[in-house]
Amino acid sequence: MTSFTLEFEANQKQIEALELLEDQAHTEIGYGGGAGGGKSYLGVAWQWIRRIQYPNSRGFFGRKELKRLKQTTLATYFKFCRDHNIPESLRGKYNIQDSSIRFANGSEIFLLDLAYIPSDPLFERFGSLEFTD
Fold it and tell me: What residues have CB less than 8 Å from 126, skipping those under 6 apart?
């Protein structure tokens, strides 16, 4: 596999969120703020780092609408890869058919439509997908 070092310059809020994400003592973390606050960018950075760091792991990006997710978060993912000159071999391959990004190390990021469905109020439809994070 290609050797690569990510140099991610984060703002103070992103640094605090990354520290909480990595400490394993927290099971839920809230990160709010207006447009342009770096939420999506941090999310895609963290997912990429986790997928590269942990072979055969699974994560996801989610929004209420899959179409909007592809227009926003997926676009941010590709921007993140370009911004950091991540080699093609480490970017993962986007599969438009099943809305996923698959990495050479067996890891995957799925794009999920998280719209509320009254017949599935506890979102049990995602229970069998075995996500790492």
Answer: 112
Q: Which tokens sit at 3?
A: 């050797």
DSSP H helical ranges for 23-94: 39-53, 66-71, 73-83, 88-91
Q: 61: which DSSP letter? A: E
- DSSP calls for 96-129: TTTTEEE-TTS-EEEEEE----TT-TT-GGGGGG
Judge contact between 109 and 101, C-beta under 8 A.
yes
Sign for the CA dihedral angle at 118, 122, 127, 131 comes to positive
Per-residue tokens: 96: 């438009």
Reported as a single tens digit per residue, the pLDDT across 48-85 is 999 999 999 999 999 999 999 999 999 999 999 999 99
